[in-house]
Structures are given as structure tokens and as C-alpha cells.
């Protein structure tokens, strides 16, 4: 097996089996790193915990819910606002976070009374919100607080409210993936089947494993609506608590992120006989195949084909423009779990980039299998990397850009490698046909950013081109605008300025697709 040993990890020989380089003609049996194991002591892992996986990834996107962490305030603060799980109720779940703020005295004397007091205070502070989730942390789990009993007491005293309890302490699994599993099973055990929904279509689905990052869900719902499909509930992006209690009435579970939500789909199949269909919202070809599969299930494939044809005609020319300019650029694909394999082949085939490395912090063996099988020979695959290994990999691979989370991304910027936020996006949504073009645009802007080019200069000896070389300045100079307009910081104040720049950009850069010509300015 082609194991790769990092120089920085030679003092931890076990780490060697967690990284491989995909060689010519090798099968997955030859090129699969160990994965989803307990973190090796001393490696300084950057993984999230099981509590994070339950609350931050799956629970928090539910929109009409008070999300209460029973533990120290740092736990809830660490899982607040770092992902853009938007909702159509003014982002209530992003604006506020709640915690019982356990202290040392509560560890000694217990914190059940504090929990009950906090639950009632939260409901009184937000009288329009009648639903709550309570998340267990390491602290409350270790002292054995009975959160279920407290929730039952409150619901008896306040019959208009409903509370879901998720026992998901941070130590509940090797990584945040353990929390995914716990909240999936807890939800179907406690809440599914307790509400009967209104059915308005002959074709009813649950959209599972979708978290509405920067509006991803809205894009996909539009396609389903045009196909005549009713989305009964979304687990859990922009999802309503009571809608998710009615998941048992869907005809089909359409699963997007298999790593975080396949568990509830499998249980719905066992308990209610609901079929599971895995789809992919990223990339023109994967998305087209997914919509056709859903249409084929219901016998409405012609509707899916119509949506695909309309969207492809509208957006494919723009994607092709970016592909020509991104061809051959090297990418490190370092996201969380399923994006490892959702993106690996799609960005290569449809954006022209070369995937030189894949990694996952909480993915299972299946995620690595699919990711490695879809990337090119010579790619470096890493399980649970730390900061030093990431830096060493970038030095070895010399990528043009990496797709990763904010913490490793900010480290990459320090060594002059641009990054895109694979977890929360830069300028999303990235799903759907339009979203995939937006993703390609962000990749293009990241690699060719003038600011990034300036960062490569050595200010001690290189000439700094502060007064030339930027497209906007060239256009303004060529347009021979008045001194007043050229020096203006608010260009839109001047009538006709937009049209002058648009006409000039079309003349100077005719290869730009019409709808994005001005963005070149």
C-alpha cells in the first residue's frame, strides 16, 4: 500500500497509515487510508466533537426552534454562527444561541434545576417560539443530569410547547460524525410520527441531508416545485420542527448528504417502508442524473428533462467560459465528509481543475472510497490531518487553491494559498445549475484575485504595481472619463457610468458571457 509519511509526524508512526498517494492502476484495496478511528494522542486533531455534529451540523438549521445547550457557555458559542444556515423566518436560529452556562458548582451539586429555569426563561423571552431542542454536552453527561425528565416536566406545565432532547456529549464518537448518528436516531425515536401533515401532491418527498447553506435548499426546491413534487420536510435546512415530525408520510426520501443523514433514511425505510434515493445537487451532470432519477421514480421523467434542458441552456455557456480559464489548475479538496466525493470528479470534469489531494476530518471509510475513486492518480488522500500536515502537504503539492473550512483556510492564506470556504461558501448558494456557475466564479476569483497576486510579491525588493495592472483602472483610463468621475468613490452616482463601463468591457473582453461581462470590471 502506498502510504505517505509526513516529516512532521514521524514521531507518531501510527499516522503513516492515515495518508496514501493514489498510484497508477491501483484499486481502492491498495490506496485506502485508515479512517473514522479515535484520534491518535499527540496529533493535535482539528476535528469537531459529537456534540458539534449533533447541534451545529444537523440541529441548528431547524428554523423555528430554541436551541439550548446544557453545558458550559463555550460549547454553544463554538457552534454558533460559523455556518450560513439561512432561513425564511429572519434567521432566528442564527441570531440567537442558548446555554445553561454550567459552572464548577453545578458539576458538584447538579444542574437540573438550572436547566429547567433556563428552559422556561427562554420560552418566556421568545413567546412566539414554541419548540426547543436540548443538547447534552460532556459536562452534563458526566454528572448524569436527566434532561428527558426535565423536558417532560416543562411540557406538562406548558402544554403548548414541545421539546426534543438529544443526548450527544462530545465524547460520544471519534468525531462529529458520532453526533450525526445520535441526533438522527433520537429524532426518529422521539418525534417522527407525532404530526399528520397536509398532502397537496401525488408526489411527496422528504429532502434529507440538506442544510440550506446560503440558500442551497431554495435552489433545489424550485426544481422540485417545477416537477410538481411536494417537499414535505427538509432535514434540516430551513426545516420546520413540526414538518419534520411528519416525515413518515413521504413517498420517498431524497438523500443529499449521506454522511450526516443516511441513518434516519435507513430507519424510515425499516419502520415505515419509505424508499431512499441518493442524489447530488453539485455539478451539471450529477444534478441532471439526480433529477432524472427522482422523476423516474414517480413516472414524471419528462418534467425533469424539461427543467434540465432549460437550466443547462441558460447556464452552461458561462460554466464553459470558466472551465477554459481554470483548466489544469491544482486544487486541494479538503472539506468535511460528503463533499469529498460529491465534488472530486465533478470539479475535474466540469471546471477543468486537477484534484491533487483529498482529505476528511470526520468521514468514514466509505467517504474515502468514493473520494479516492473519483480523483486522479497521484492524489494525496489524508484522514484527520492536523495543521502541520496540512502545511507540509501544501508545500509538497503547490496547489493553486484549496477548498476547506475556515480554520485550515486561514492557515493556507498565511502561506499565500487562496482558499474557498467549503463549509459555509464564499458567495453561495453553490447547488443547482446557477450555483455551480457561482462556485466556478468563486474559484476563478480566488485564483486570479489581484490582491492574491500582490501577496506573492516581496515588498523588500519587488516593485509594487499600485498604480497600474488592474482591469478597472485600465478601463477607466481607456474610457477617458472626466477627472471628477475617475476620482469618485461612488461610481453609481454618475449617470451613464454603468453603460460606459459595460460597453467598454464588451469591447475589450468580448469572450465574457453577456451576463457576467460587467463583473469583469
Structure description:
There is one protein chain. This protein is an alpha/beta fold and about 525 residues long. Among the domains are: about 50-190, Rossmann fold; about 205-310, Nitrogenase molybdenum iron protein domain (Rossmann fold, 3-Layer(aba) Sandwich); about 470-520, no CATH class. It is built from 22 helices and 14 strands. It has helices at about 50-60, 75-80, 90-95, 105-110, 110-125, 140-145, 145-155, 175-190, 215-225, 240-245, 260-270, 285-300, 300-325, 340-350, 365-375, 385-395, 405-415, 430-450, 450-455, 470-480, 485, 495-510, and strands spanning about 20, 65-70, 100, 130-135, 160-165, 205-210, 230-235, 250-255, 275-280, 330-335, 355-360, 380-385, 400-405, 420. Strands 1-12-11-10-13-14 form a six-stranded mixed beta sheet, sandwiched between helices. A four-stranded parallel beta sheet has the order 3-2-4-5, with helices on both faces. The chain has a four-stranded parallel beta sheet with strand order 7-6-8-9, sandwiched between helices. Helix 11 (about 260-270) links the parallel strand 8 and strand 9. The radius of gyration is 25 Å and the shape is globular. About 45% of the residues are buried. Residues about 490-500 and about 510-520 have low confidence and may be disordered.
